[in-house]
Amino acid sequence: MPIIAKTPEPPYYAVIFTSTRTDGDNGYGEIADRMVELAEQQSGFLGVESARESVGITVSYWSDLESIKNWKANTEHLEAQKIGRKMWYSSFKVRISKVERDYGI
Known about the structure:
By secondary structure, this protein is α+β, with helices and mostly antiparallel strands. It has three helices and four strands; from the N terminus they run E-H-E-E-H-H-E. It has helices spanning 28-40, 65-73, 75-88, and strands at residues 12-21, 45-52, 56-62, 89-99. Helix 1 packs antiparallel against helix 3.
């Protein structure tokens, strides 16, 4: 069962990665798992949620913009981005938002 990230009281930031995939796995699953493992080690990381149907959406949560900037510049993450552009994604979009309010059960 998917897990909803346990985030702190706002404000915090969300990085929304929306993508369409190319055919085949081509090592994607292994690297995607590694990126979550690596992100969890980064300062400012708060959690992640992901879903995939015809469009994949992964939302990672961060305490501040500096943490997002550092994650984007992580060497291993940069290599995965390069491979993703070449092999895994037919299209993608990254959006960064400030979460001002959240609620739920």
